[in-house]
Structure formats: structure tokens, C-alpha cells
Design brief:
Layout lengths: L10 E3 H8 L4 E6 L8 H6 L5 E10 L6 H19 L3 E7 L4 H11 L5 E6 L5 H13 L3 E9 L3 E2 L5 E4 L3 E2 L14 E5 L7 H7 L4 E7 L6 H12 L8 E5 L4 H14 L4 E5 L3 H10 L7 E5 L2 E4 L4 E2 L11 E8 L2 E2 L2
Parallel strand pairs: 2-3, 2-5, 3-4, 5-6, 10-11, 10-13, 11-12, 13-14
Antiparallel strand pairs: 1-17, 6-17, 7-16, 8-15, 9-14, 17-18
Length: 334
């Protein structure tokens, strides 16, 4: 095999990957959140000399009965973030349901410098924000390097942890341009909750349905994911494809999605209910099939303050942070 035939998928633990990437002047984009894991990546970077200036996105949900609790805890975590980052941190406040043009402008401003190297922490960013951000950052010619980081929580709240989900709609930047006749291929990334999408799948029954299942999710995540799968497809045809891919393996999920979409002759509907790396794989596959695909999501308007708890630790006792290098020295690995 020649070097031209070797495909590199640069991902792994943050302490393993980042020294190999070799960049020492990252512009960090973080998110201050009510989730404890929002400080983990900044905490790891505080022990290195890799970070330059930083930006912290603070995204406000619509008012709810939990708003005061969420704002109070977010204030605490934002203080911790600022201490970790040490240098001047710009805080950008925006509403969860802000128009796409708002995020377009913000991302363009954050990446406005020439030869910029960006490290984006998606651990606590909503899917409607970070999927749009990554798609835009991948397309900007002045982004020299791009690394995405994701911290796993110790666990998630049992039962319901979001409410008041909006009707299913295409996420900003991921709407289909053309409609072909015939049934769609529907690819569902399985997670814990269906939001309002179970009804959509019921309406689409009979279409080509494929599931991307996180494996091994571990108990009780394993039980909850299978429960959701049964909820989404109670009478699952034995021929329905259920593809098991590790929850953190972005590149394996991307490869499977691309192969599946290339075999599909008509429209493609992506439904990202599962782990963020699987959702990100859908967004990275989207540009190849932009004219006949879309990413559908039912955005919750209310998150419970105990949505997740703690920070998962790896075998070395360090925060379990996975890093993905999507671009290095202008070369895309996607």
C-alpha cells in the first residue's frame, strides 16, 4: 500500500492527540453552561501552553421555571472557565433560538484572522449551534487548523431531562434544496429521547429506515438507547439495518453514513438523537449530499438543571475528553 492510499483519521484522547497535532497557538471557543463538564477542556488546556485568546459562548434558553437555577450554576462554571483560561476571555451572549444569520456572523468574526487555528469545545453546545459552526468553519479558507473536543459526563439524569420540544424542522444550514419523488432514506442516530420525532418516523413508515446505534454505550445507557429504538420503531422489520458504531468514533460513523447515502437514490433525512460525535458525522457528510438531504431536529426549549452530572474519568483518572482533528495546515481529514 502506498502512502497515497492511506486515510488518516486523527482522533483520540486529548492528551494523546493534541501534542501530535503540534499547534501551540489555538483560539479556543468554549461554552459556559449549567453542565459541570463545560470546564473540563479548559481545565486540561490550563496545564499546557497551547492556547492563545479564548471566546466563551453563553447561550440562553427561553424563560422557564428552571431559568434562575440554570443561570446561577452557569455563573459558577463561567468563573471556573475564566480562571482556567487565565488570559482575556470574551463572553458572547446569545439566545438558543437566534436566527441563523446571527450565528453566521458570530462564526465569521471568530475566524476572521488569517491562518487561524481553532479549537472548538462542543461538550455543552446545542446541536443547532455546533453543527452550524463546524460546517461554517470547515468551509472558511482562512481556518488553518480545526480541532473539535468533546467531554463525556459521568452520567445523565434518569427519566425526562428536556421539555417543550419544537416541531421537527431542518436545522439551520442543513435544509434540503431539491425534492425527488419517492420515499426517503431515513438515518436515525439513536440516543435517549425522541423529542417530537417519533411521530415523524411514524408518518414516514415504509421508507428506508436505518439506525446508527452507539456501541458500547454501557449500562444504563445501553438500556435507554434500546428503549428509545423500540419507541421509534415498535414493529421493527427484521431487515432494518442497525449499525453499531462506538459513540466516540466520529470517523467510522461518517464513513458508514457516506456509504449509505451514496447507495440511496432519492432524498436523505438525517435525525440526530444520539451522541454528539454521531450528530457531527451527519453534518460533515451533509455537504456531499446537500441538494437532496437535510438534518431534522426537534429543538427542546427547556433543559432540566440536572441534565447531566459529573465528568467521566478515564483509566488514568483524567477527564474523558476526546479530540478530533478535522483540519491541519489547511488539509481536511474529512
Amino acid at each position: 500500500m502506498t502512502s497515497a492510499n492511506i486515510k488518516i483519521n486523527p482522533w483520540g484522547s486529548i492528551e494523546w492527540l493534541m501534542p501530535k497535532v503540534g499547534v501551540t497557538g489555538w483560539k479556543g471557543i468554549f461554552c459556559s453552561s449549567f453542565e459541570p463538564r463545560c470546564t473540563a477542556v479548559a481545565g486540561w488546556l490550563s496545564t499546557s501552553n497551547m492556547l492563545g485568546e479564548s471566546v466563551c459562548l453563553r447561550i440562553k434558553d427561553p424563560e422557564s421555571r428552571f431559568s434562575k437555577d440554570i443561570e446561577r450554576v452557569t455563573d459558577v462554571h463561567e468563573t471556573v472557565l475564566s480562571k482556567h483560561l487565565k488570559k482575556r476571555v470574551e463572553i458572547i451572549r446569545e439566545d438558543l433560538l437566534a436566527e441563523p444569520g446571527v450565528w453566521y456572523k458570530i462564526i465569521n468574526q471568530l475566524a476572521s484572522c488569517s491562518e487561524v487555528s481553532i479549537l472548538l469545545d462542543i461538550s455543552c453546545l446545542p446541536k443547532r449551534v455546533f453543527l452550524f459552526a463546524v460546517k461554517r468553519l470547515m468551509s472558511l479558507p482562512n481556518v488553518k487548523d480545526l480541532v473539535i473536543c468533546y467531554t463525556r459526563p459521568e452520567g445523565y439524569k434518569e427519566g425526562q431531562f428536556t421539555e417543550d420540544a419544537e416541531p421537527p424542522a431542518a436545522l439551520p444550514g442543513f435544509a434540503r434544496i431539491n425534492e425527488s419523488s419517492g420515499d426517503s432514506t431515513v438515518i436515525v442516530s439513536v440516543g435517549y429521547m425522541a423529542f417530537n420525532l417519533a411521530e415523524l418516523l411514524e408518518q414516514n413508515r415504509g421508507k428506508s429506515l436505518k439506525f446508527l446505534f452507539p456501541f458500547p454505550p454501557g449500562s444504563p445507557g445501553f438500556r435507554r438507547s434500546w428503549k428509545l429504538l423500540h419507541e421509534l420503531a415498535p414493529a421493527l422489520d427484521r431487515q432494518t439495518e442497525i449499525k453499531r458504531i462506538h459513540a466516540m468514533d466520529l470517523f467510522a460513523a461518517l464513513e458508514w453514513i457516506r456509504i449509505t447515502c451514496r447507495e440511496a437514490a432519492r432524498n436523505i433525512d438525517f435525525i440526530p438523537l444520539g451522541p454528539k460525535p454521531h450528530a457531527l458525522a451527519m453534518a460533515l457528510a451533509f455537504p456531499e449530499f446537500w441538494d437532496r438531504s437535510e438534518i431534522l431536529y426537534s429543538q427542546p426549549r427547556l433543559y432540566h438543571p440536572n441534565y447531566s452530572y459529573g465528568v467521566l474519568k478515564n483509566v488514568r483518572g483524567l477527564p474523558d475528553i476526546t479530540a478530533y482533528c478535522l483540519k491541519r495546515n489547511y488539509l481536511s481529514f474529512i
